[in-house]
Amino acid sequence: MEKITNFFKTFLLFELVKGMALTGRYFFARKITVQFPEEKTPQGFRFRGLHAQRRYASGEERCIGCKLCEAVCPALAINIETEEREDGTRRTTRYDIDLMKCIFCGFCEESCPVDAIVETRILEYHGEKRGDLYYTKPMLLAVGDKYEEQIAKDRAADAKYR
Amino acid sequence: MPAMAEIRNYTINFGPQHPAAHGVLRLVLELDGEVIVRADPHIGLLHRGTEKLAETRTWLQTLPYLDRLDYVSMMCNEHAYCLAVERLLGAEVPLRAQYIRVMMDEVTRILNHLLNIGTHALDIGAMTMVLYTFREREDLMDVYEAVSGARLHAAYYRPGGVYRDLPDRMPQYVQNKFKNAETVKRLNEARQGSLLDFIEDFTNRFPAYVDEYETLLTDNRIWKQRTVGVGVVSPERALALGFTGPMLRGSGVEWDLRKKQPYEVYDRMEFDVPVGVNGDCYDRYLVRIEEMRQANRIVKQCIDWLRMNPGPVITDNHKVAPPPREKMKAGMEELIHHFKLFTEGMHVPPGEAYAAIEHPKGEFGVYAISDGGNKPYRIKLRSPGFPHLAATDEMAKGHMIADATAIIGTIDLVLGDTDR
């Protein structure tokens, strides 16, 4: 009996038809496509994308130039120089992140004691020529100013886990 | 009578730009007509010197580089490294962290096997498979992102535990001009609760998806013609060649580090180890399918435990792991620990340790030597892909040239960890 069913299964391309039925079902099923540039998949609050430098509400920059991020960076992508400002506080005169070197491990954010350097949700940044992805302090501060609302919301959501 | 034409073997390059060569493998094939006489894998095109790099990085800084070894099973690489460092330190890992690690390891195993089966089928002609497996990979990638913040290079495990606890909410789809409120509501149904709810929903759906893959492949006569009897390795040869993982189990040797040398909480998990019979590409495929089902079972058990038992996820020994941020900002001693850990790094007592885990591809091991400093003296990485690739010649000999893709696919080759 088994022999006969096997013969007919082979002869009638049974398993191929079953496979086709499956793909056919999906042909008429609801599509799961995400039309990327216009719409995006959900992004978690821990997402690690482009870096940003943050400011306090007063407009004062957060970074105090402790150089922890520079020390912990596995790819040696961060360069910092500091100097004493006129009011006696220590601030950075240079804060560069070479995004071509950066491996987006998030250690800089993890190490920062004042939540100054953060990794934002932005993932669609680009450079058109060599050196465009070498982010300097004004560029990082500009990113921070632009997205501060979202950045603060994400940090607040993640605060209890860290 | 004219002299016989001289017949010579024909040598071709398979890769490094061939789409079926899985990355940058270069296979020099010596052919006799269409039959492979010798297959000579040339590696090193993706060599980044991870082992040497580790010698100039602190123990923590090496961790994100481990993600980049086998870049389809990221967290498993980190796991082996963390285990090795913990063994040197003698550090205690909180139980919750162990469960999270086991759960994420099994999620990684599913991710890895999905990619392997999808691309393996794609390589030898079953175009649609990869579309179905990548659909499920997308869900698991969302898990990765919600947990660690990155879809691929997680950097989530730490010596002494894991970085953060699992999040208690999932990101949601938002309404736009392509998706109306009803569609968005349906898409977000599984995302209403915590991450654990999301994974549980996935584990409930997943067995049906595996059935779909099996419908498409397992009985399919074309798939069988391409894989049955191809690349046969006997159990004795598999052991002699240093095979591990599905490659070894496909040959019928029941060897699984999760059972034989249980690490973390695998001894509390209930799961079976699938074993093949013939040791050909088809059996290895069946082993991988069954491993996905078993991994699904383990994930479920972990979810149940993690639901019931909240707690710390990283050791409170602040010589190893930094204190929580709240405390760091309030206390002097914690701040000192924080600064010391992120500049100088932890000091690991002198000694040697080898830690191996059952990586989706086989045994992934990290052999670390410490001289008591803040950097490893030497790290040796044992990647499962390397001995497997070394056996290509033995497996491919005598087969047709088209079977070379089937054999490369079944090895589950990722050049990132073969070249290191």
Labels describing this entry:
heterodimer; A: 162 residues; alpha+beta; three-stranded antiparallel sheet; two-stranded antiparallel sheet; 5 strands; B: 420 residues; mainly alpha; 18 helices
List the helices and strands and how they pair.
The complex is a heterodimer of chains A (162) and B (420).
Chain A: H1 2-11, H2 14-28, E1 51-53, H3 68-72, E2 78-84, E3 90-98, H4 107-111, E4 117-119, E5 134-135, H5 137-158
Antiparallel strand pairs in A: 1-4, 2-3, 3-5
Chain B: E1 10-14, E2 26-32, E3 35-42, H1 50-54, H2 59-67, H3 74-89, H4 95-123, H5 129-148, E4 157-158, E5 161-162, H6 181-187, H7 195-217, H8 221-227, H9 235-240, H10 246-250, H11 257-260, H12 281-308, H13 325-330, H14 332-343, E6 351-359, E7 362-370, E8 376-382, H15 385-390, H16 392-396, H17 403-411, H18 415-419
Antiparallel strand pairs in B: 1-2, 2-3, 4-5, 6-7, 7-8
Helix pairs in contact in B: 2-3, 3-4, 4-5, 4-12, 4-17, 5-7, 7-12
Written account of the structure:
- The complex is a heterodimer of chains A (162) and B (420).
- Helix content of chain A is 35%, strand content 15%.
- Chain A is α+β, with helices and mostly antiparallel strands.
- Chain A has a 3-stranded antiparallel β-sheet with strand order 2-3-5. A two-stranded antiparallel sheet of chain A has the order 1-4.
- In chain A, strand 2 (78-84) and strand 3 form a beta hairpin.
- Chain A has helices spanning 2-11, 14-28, 68-72, 107-111, 137-158, and strands spanning 51-53, 78-84, 90-98, 117-119, 134-135.
- Chain B has helices spanning 50-54, 59-67, 74-89, 95-123, 129-148, 181-187, 195-217, 221-227, 235-240, 246-250, 257-260, 281-308, 325-330, 332-343, 385-390, 392-396, 403-411, 415-419; strands at residues 10-14, 26-32, 35-42, 157-158, 161-162, 351-359, 362-370, 376-382.
- Helix content of chain B is 48%, strand content 12%.
- Chain B is mostly helical.
- In chain B, the strands form 3 sheets. A 3-stranded antiparallel β-sheet of chain B has the order 1-2-3.
- Chain B has 18 helices and 8 strands.
- In chain B, strand 2 and strand 3 form a beta hairpin.
- Chain A binds chain B through residues 10, 15-16, 18-19, 22-23, 32, 35, 38-39, 41-48, 66, 68, 71-74, 103-107, 110-111, 113, 119, 158-159, 161-162, and chain B through 57, 60-65, 68, 128, 135, 138, 142, 145-150, 153, 155, 163-165, 167, 170-174, 176-179, 191, 212, 215-216, 219-221, 322, 324-325, 328-329, 335, 338-339, 342-343.
